[in-house]
Design a protein that fits this description.
The protein is of the alpha+beta class. It has helices spanning 75-85, 95-103, 115-119, 130-138, 145-148, 159-169, 174-187, 197-208, 212-222; strands at residues 2-3, 6-10, 16-19, 28-33, 38-43, 50-55. 36% of the residues lie in helices and 12% in strands. Helix 7 packs parallel to helix 9 (212-222).
């Protein structure tokens, strides 16, 4: 933003940070490095003349995310919530389903496989809402490999969510990994950054097991039409 020959960077919280160019720029180039938590502003006509460098980090998880017993709900609420958690696709959720899931999120820990459905029901992924979402993610019951793969769906670009998914599937055996490798390669299309937890996971496993390497490269080279990742939400 320019005001009376002064330049400002505006944050989502409304904070104004002054830029300090040596000369009045005609164009400003913005460079974002999410993984390193850095935003830089350059005078585009005098590149690489740096106007300002900002650093940022992901918000920390909230200190507490309650866990309540599912059976402490009334019978009617239990039946309705269980019916929603048994849906096999994110796209089958209605607005009412999403509202019910999010309102009762602290009762869902006993059904670990419902996490993808629950996260897609979050009303907002704005910065201010992330601590509560991250606390829920941090304290969630360990998911099996098949259910954890659902968190690599295109619906979840958030790096903390995808990092948690890789943490849970990291113990997957090579034999099991070979079964899911085509879908994991397809999930690479949904990554926002080349240096991502999924890329690192696949590279590490390809180095450790040479059976994986050609199968990892083949889908990238020929780009076959693979089944959608939607079935991974429920491990089917």
């Amino acid at each position: 933003m320019c005001w009376e020959d002064q330049y400002w960077a505006l944050t989502s919280s409304g904070q104004s940070i002054p830029l300090s160019p040596t000369q009045a720029p005609c164009r400003i180039r913005v460079y974002l490095d999410y993984e390193r938590g850095r935003v830089e502003f350059f005078d585009a006509d005098r590149f690489p003349s740096l106007c300002l460098q900002l650093t940022f980090t992901s918000p920390p998880a909230a200190e507490c995310s309650p866990k309540y017993e599912f059976h402490s709900l009334g019978k009617e609420d239990q039946c309705k919530l269980k019916e929603v958690m048994q849906k096999e696709s994110l796209y089958w959720l209605t607005d009412t389903d999403r509202k019910r899931l999010w309102e009762k999120r602290y009762y869902c820990h006993e059904q670990p496989g419902s996490l993808p459905l629950l996260l897609t029901s979050a009303p907002s992924w704005e910065w201010a809402c992330l601590p509560d979402i991250y606390a829920l993610l941090k304290q969630w019951t360990y998911m099996n490999h098949q259910d954890a793969l659902g968190l690599l769906h295109a619906t979840f670009p958030d790096q903390e969510v995808r990092r948690t998914a890789i943490h849970w599937i990291d113990s997957m055996s090579d034999a099991e990994l070979l079964d899911y490798l085509p879908q994991l390669v397809q999930a690479l299309k949904y990554e926002c950054y080349l240096d991502s937890p999924l890329v690192r996971f696949l590279m590490k496993r390809a180095i450790c097991d040479l059976r994986i390497t050609p199968l990892l490269l083949l889908p990238v080279r020929y780009k076959p039409q693979l089944p959608a990742l939607e079935f991974l939400n429920r491990g089917q």
